[in-house]
C-alpha cells in the first residue's frame, strides 16, 4: 500500500513584496510530497529532473522518507525552471520565465515497487502525462485525486476531460471551476463538473478557504488568516498533498473524512506560505501540525442550540 | 429594552443579469430592520423619507412589528433614491444614480419612546449623523454596532474615526478594512482597527463569508453557496440586522454569542439575495430561518479526533 504523487520537480525563482530568491527547489510533486510525508509514511514520487538538480536537492525529499525511485534523472538536460513575481495582493502573479527543459519530453515510468499504489495524486501536469500514469498502473487505485490549472483548459481541454472521467476528486480554484463549467455560481459549476467524471470537487479559494462538493453535500473550510504570507508558491500543491496524505493515513474515503482531509491540506498550505519555497515544509514537526489543526478547529467552530 | 436601527430608507432601482426593477423599497435601515424583526420583537427605526414614500411602503415595516415613530416624513421632499447595475460576477456594480433628496439634510430625532435602546445599529450613513444619534441617546447602549463604507473613508475619514471611538463592533468589507488600516493582511488590518475604538471587527466577504476578530480570537464564518444570486442589494444590511437582532434576542454580548450572531446575519443575508430588493425579507418565516441555520451548521461542521 502506498501513496503515489506525480508532478513536476523544479527550480523556482520567486519574487514577492517581502524579498526574492535565487533558484530554489520547487515543483508540484515536491510540495505535495513533503506535505503528505507528515501524514503518511509510504509516499512515492514520479517525476523527472535534469543533471543539474543534484543529490543535495533530492535529499530534501529522501530526508522525509519519500521514495524517489520514480524520479528519472536525465543527465544531459536541465530541470524544469519557473520564475514569477507576486503582486502586493499575493493572489496574482506574473510568470517571468517558464523553461520546460526535461519536462518537455517527460514520459512517466512507474517502478514495479510503485504498483502497490492505492492513493494517487495526479499533480498539475500535462493531461496526457496524467493519463499515461493511469494507463501504466496495473491496478486501479482506491482514490485518484487530480490537480490541474487553467493553462491546460486553454491548450488541452479534450485531453483534460478524458482524464477527468477516471478521477475521483478534482481540485481546482474558483476561476478554473468557472472556466471548466461555463457557470459563474459555484453550486452550478460543481453540478456540471461532477457530471464530467469526478465524484468530488474541491474548489480552492486561497485566503478564502476551500469548498468541497460531493455526495449531495457541501463543506466550506476556512483558511487561517495569517499576518504574513511570504510566498504563496506551492500552497495549492501542499494542500493537495496534505489532503491525500490524510486520506491515505485514515484509509477510508468518504465525505466525512474528506472534510478533515481538507482541513489537514489547508493546515499544510498555511505552513507552506510562511517561508520561501519549500523551506517551511522541510522543517515541520507533528506537534506544530497538531497545534495548527487546533487553530482551524477554533476558527470554524460555533454552537447554535 | 429595544433594538434601535439608524439608516437610510430609500427607493432603489436595480439591474442585475437576471432582470431589473422599477423603484422598489430599499435602504440600509429597511433591510436591517426587516432582518432583525425575525429575531427580536422590539425593533425601532430612525430615518427619514419624503412625501412620495407612501403608507403602503411604510406598512412593509409595520407589518413586521417594526416601530417607525422615528421615521420622519418630510412631505415636500423626495425619498433618497439609488439606482445601480450589477456586473455578471454580482460582486461589482456601477452606481447609475444617487439622489440624496431628503437625506441631504437628515437630522435624526429620537422619540422619547426610543430612549430605552440597549442595542444600537448605526447603519451606513454620514458619520456625523451616526454621531448625532449617539449624542442624543440619554443612556449609552449596551452594544453599538456600526456599518459604514469606503465612500465615508474617502470624504469624512476624521468624522468616521471619531464615531469609531464610541462603537463596540465595526462591520466593513475586506477592501474597506484594507483602506481604513493601510494593511493588506486581514490579521494586521484587524489589529490596527481594533486600536481605533471597536472591541470587535467583522470583515464581510460576501460569497466568501465573514471573519470576526475580538477578545484575541478569530472566527471564520462560511457563506452558503447559492445556485442563484438575484440581487445582492441589502445583503450587508441584512447581515448587520440579523447579527444585532440575534444579540438583542440572547441579551448577552461575548465572542461565543457573536459567532452565532454572524451565522444568523449570514442566513438573513442569504435570503435577501434570493429575490429583488426586500421581497424575500418580507415573507420569511421562522421555520425557513431555522432550516437555513441548520444548513450553515452542516456546511461548516467537521470533527477531527
From TrEMBL, chains A, B:
Record-level Gene Ontology MF annotations: kinase activity
Keyword terms: Kinase, Transferase
Keyword Methyltransferase: no
Signal peptide boundaries: none
GO terms under cellular component: cytosol
Pfam families per record: PfkB
Limits of the Carbohydrate kinase PfkB domain: 7-279
Highest taxon listed in the record's lineage: Bacteria
Alphabetized PANTHER family for the sequence: RIBOKINASE, SUGAR KINASE
Protein name per UniProt: Sugar kinase
The organism of origin for this protein: Sphingobacterium corticibacter
Taxonomic lineage: Bacteria, Pseudomonadati, Bacteroidota, Sphingobacteriia, Sphingobacteriales
Amino acid at each position: 500500500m502506498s501513496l503515489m504523487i506525480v508532478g513536476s520537480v523544479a527550480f523556482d525563482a520567486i519574487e514577492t513584496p517581502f524579498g526574492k530568491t535565487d533558484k530554489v527547489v520547487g515543483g508540484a510533486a515536491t510540495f505535495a510530497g513533503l506535505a503528505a510525508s507528515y501524514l503518511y509514511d509510504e509516499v512515492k514520487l514520479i517525476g523527472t529532473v535534469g543533471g543539474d538538480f543534484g543529490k543535495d536537492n533530492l535529499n530534501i525529499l529522501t530526508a522525509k522518507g519519500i521514495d524517489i525511485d520514480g524520479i528519472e534523472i536525465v543527465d544531459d538536460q536541465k530541470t524544469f525552471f519557473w520564475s514569477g513575481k507576486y503582486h502586493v495582493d499575493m493572489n496574482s502573479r506574473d510568470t517571468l520565465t517558464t523553461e520546460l527543459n526535461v519536462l518537455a519530453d517527460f514520459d512517466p515510468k512507474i517502478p514495479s515497487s510503485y504498483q502497490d499504489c492505492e492513493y494517487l495524486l495526479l499533480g498539475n501536469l500535462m493531461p496526457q502525462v496524467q493519463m499515461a500514469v493511469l494507463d501504466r498502473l496495473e491496478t486501479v487505485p482506491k482514490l485518484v485525486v487530480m490537480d490541474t490549472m487553467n493553462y491546460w483548459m486553454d491548450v488541452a481541454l479534450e485531453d483534460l476531460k478524458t482524464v477527468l472521467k477516471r478521477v475521483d476528486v478534482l481540485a481546482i480554484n474558483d476561476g478554473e471551476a468557472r472556466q471548466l463549467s461555463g457557470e459563474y455560481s459555484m453550486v452550478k459549476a460543481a453540478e456540471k463538473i461532477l457530471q464530467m467524471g469526478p465524484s468530488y470537487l474541491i474548489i480552492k479559494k486561497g485566503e478564502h478557504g476551500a469548498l468541497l462538493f460531493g455526495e449531495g453535500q457541501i463543506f466550506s473550510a476556512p483558511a487561517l488568516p495569517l499576518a504574513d504570507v511570504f510566498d504563496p508558491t506551492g500552497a495549492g500543491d501542499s494542500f493537495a498533498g496534505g489532503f491525500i496524505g490524510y486520506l491515505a493515513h485514515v484509509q477510508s474515503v468518504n465525505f466525512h473524512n474528506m472534510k478533515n482531509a481538507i482541513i489537514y491540506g489547508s493546515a499544510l498550505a498555511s505552513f507552506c506560505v510562511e517561508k520561501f519555497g519549500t523551506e517551511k515544509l522541510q522543517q515541520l514537526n507533528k506537534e506544530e501540525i497538531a497545534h495548527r489543526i487546533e487553530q482551524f478547529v477554533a476558527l470554524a467552530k460555533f454552537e447554535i442550540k
